[in-house]
Fold this sequence. Notes:
Elements: H1 3-28, H2 33-38, H3 41-51, H4 62-94, H5 117-134, E1 139-141, E2 147-154, E3 157-167, E4 173-183, E5 191-195, H6 198-206, H7 217-222, E6 223-226, H8 229-235, H9 238-247, E7 254-258, E8 263-269, H10 274-290, H11 299-304
Antiparallel strand pairs: 1-2, 2-3, 3-4, 4-8, 5-6, 5-7, 7-8
Helix pairs in contact: 1-4, 5-10, 9-10
Amino acid sequence: MPTGLYRDAHLGIRARLRELEARIRDREAEVTDAFWESLDAEVRAHLARLKASVGKIDATSLDELAAAEGALSQYASKLDALIRQLPAVEEEWREVPADVADPPDIRPRPWALRFDAEGAHQAERLFEAAVRERDRAAEIMAPRRGAMLARFRDRDAPFALRGQVISDNNGNVVDVALHLVTSISRATPPLSLRHETMLHAFGKVLGVKREVDVGDDSFDGLFFVESTKDAVERLLPPQVRAQLMALARYDIPTLVVDPRAQTASLRWRFEPNAKALDAAVRVLASIREAGGVVRFLASSLRASG
């Protein structure tokens, strides 16, 4: 084979590779960081493996160049397909499920199940009364002694509440573990809130904990919040913080906003009562209504579209 033709083959494939690289760069500029974060880990890893072939544009082997062209062509095609789907995906992410799955079963330690029957019945009566005050049509079940489950609606939102009686070593009922959940959209930003402990305070001093202060000393001193500043402003406005403080009069709750699971949940321990449940429902309903903003396409494309 003449030397000139061999060089032309290399030059041609390198030119195609550089065209692919430019096309990929332009397409990547069309999406936001949120787009990449939204992808499943396996998809993201697969795309990263394909794109790694960009580093082989200057390879001397024709086989390596051909393999790189194939990988980058696949990457560009997959990226094109994902971008075409983005308007529909954004719409899906903004949708809020009309129903919510029951909270996980609360399984206390074996010794904590030895409670007196009257104490358990009293807890079950209080649980039902608190739920009925919110929704007369609520569905209430007792899967086993000392365990309660309710499904109800409030503010046009679905709720599921699970309760489990907890006793001391003598069988006296000391608490009811409660777990309330509702559904949220995938666009809702993630957030975790729990009791501010000495360990958290120590970590904050060292700078090893990603805590966000809301600017309210009484609230910040009681709760440890992990999220972003924007998410805290959206999901924990003053009225929601006030309800969390009201719930903390009974027990300091744990709040988890999990957009991947499409749930927001509150956990606390106390005897069931209408005021505590009212505060918990208000918190979760407000978070559900606040939702989030999802932007997978760059603003310049959105404006031109």
